[in-house]
Design a protein that fits this description.
Elements lengths: L25 H16 L4 E3 L9 E4 L6 E12 L2 E6 L6 E7 L2 E7 L5 E7 H14 L9 E6 L11
Antiparallel strand pairs: 1-2, 2-3, 3-6, 4-5, 5-8, 6-7
Zinc ion binds next to helix 2.
Length: 161
């Protein structure tokens, strides 16, 4: 198990566009395992490779239903709307209100480079959007309605990616 250092806001890697993964390699496999370890260690529900300094289109997510690995993810359908608190492991201790689609369908490759399609609502839909945004160098802080605010201890179960 190897934990990677999570880059925080202000690090230029977080505002760059990540490159697609062309083929699975032992190194990328190791990166994915490390991303999952780092995400769980940080109590996050999602992590994108740029957050650990790697500009590749790879995302890990776990909203409490088991790990999801998305390589080269593409949002192919959205509907509805949800407005709620969102946070990010790259903006520690903060959260803000963001409106996202309530339903998201995403197409990606799994760790074996085979095509997978996931559908998510609520938190999972939010995670799909938040993490794919990271791959395009977009931070949720740009979407926050009102002010970013400090997360208090009671809000500790809030969403952190
Ligand atoms: Zn994030």
């Amino acid at each position: 198990m190897a934990l990677r250092k999570i880059r925080t806001e202000g690090d230029p890697v977080l505002t760059k566009k990540a490159r697609p993964v062309a083929e699975m390699t032992p190194r990328i496999r190791e990166l994915i395992v490390d991303m999952l370890d780092t995400m769980y260690d940080s109590m996050g529900v999602g992590l994108a490779a740029p957050q650990v300094g790697i500009l590749k289109r790879i995302v890990t997510i776990d909203v409490g239903e088991g790990p999801i690995v998305l390589i080269n993810p593409e949002i192919i359908e959205t509907s509805g709307e949800q407005t709620g608190e969102e946070g990010c492991l790259s903006v520690p201790g903060m959260s803000g209100v963001v409106t996202r689609p309530n339903y998201v369908k995403v197409k990606a490759l799994d760790i074996n480079m085979e095509e997978v399609v996931y559908e998510g609502t609520e938190l999972l839909a939010r995670a799909f959007c938040h993490e794919t945004d990271h791959l395009d160098g977009k931070m949720y802080t740009e979407l926050v309605e009102g002010e970013l605010h400090r997360v208090t201890y009671d809000d500790d179960e809030d969403y952190e990616e």
